[in-house]
Amino acid sequence: MNRIVRIPAILLLLTLSCCAWRWVMAQSSPMPTGESLRVYGPGGPYPAMKECAALYSARAGIPVEVVKGQPDLLVEAVRSDGDLFYNGAEYMMDDFLAAHPGVLDAAGVTPLFARRMGIIVRAGNPKGIAVPEDLRKPGVAVLDVRLENMAGPRHDPPQGLPGVALSVVTGEQGFAAWKERPDLDAWVTYRTWHAQLTDGSLFLPLPGAEGLRSVVAAEVIGARHPEEARRFRDWLTSKEAHAVFVRHGFE
Fold first, then answer.
1. Domain for residue 162, yes or no?
2. Which long-range contacts (CB under 8 A, 24 or more apart) does 133-141 make?
3. Which residues are CB-contacts of 9 (< 8 A; sequence separation ≥ 6)?
């Protein structure tokens, strides 16, 4: 005797909704065979952006490739085949737009999710650092990442950067230096970098709205796939994308 298999209504609804969304995406935005949506940006938000790209590709059936690098060194690649560009903070995007006019749609810059700034200190906090002013204590070796522009949160004076034992350009270089240089006592940076550490270090957050900076994204002018870039950018503001960013240390 044949048995009737009953599918829970919520499961059926979710399945049909997912299938319908993929069908609409496929019909409205065909992607030529062998091509992918090209997304460029710096290394800090890269892990979250890469995971979002994989999730979106599976949902929409549209290949999304994320390429990381130092923003100023990515300009020609963005011009040639970029569809979407993200940057690690609003001020970074403003600087990029000013330095490279005509590359991105400035009117379409979209805030995504915020990263908390703070101070990473060694396990057990041996130097007793609690607030940015403590970075001025004698004998505290500070790691500086120039692109992260943390002079303000460190309260550094215009005439110099006290206590800076090592200065590098990118967050990825800072991350490598923190792991390789145990003599560095503190790094004013983002929680997202601390989320990738496994050395027992502590993160001391800077409170309030002034302790937050948002990752932003913008479409490339003359993009090969402008409609798909716009859809992906809009999806990056969704609750589903937010859950991915939160797993990587965003708020």
1. yes
2. 135/162, 135/163, 135/186, 135/188, 136/162, 136/163, 137/163, 140/185, 140/186, 141/165, 141/166, 141/183, 141/184, 141/185, 141/186
3. none
- Same domain membership, residue 132 and residue 199: yes
> Within this chain, do residues 107 and 136 fall inside the same structural domain, yes or no?
no
pTM beyond 0.85: no
Residues in the chain: 251
Q: What is the pLDDT along the chain (251 residues), one digit of tens a residue?
A: 455 445 555 444 444 444 444 444 444 455 666 689 999 999 999 999 999 999 999 999 999 999 999 999 999 999 999 999 999 999 999 999 999 999 999 999 999 999 999 999 999 999 999 999 999 999 999 999 999 999 888 878 766 667 899 999 999 999 999 999 999 999 999 999 999 999 999 999 999 999 999 999 999 999 999 999 999 999 999 999 999 999 999 99
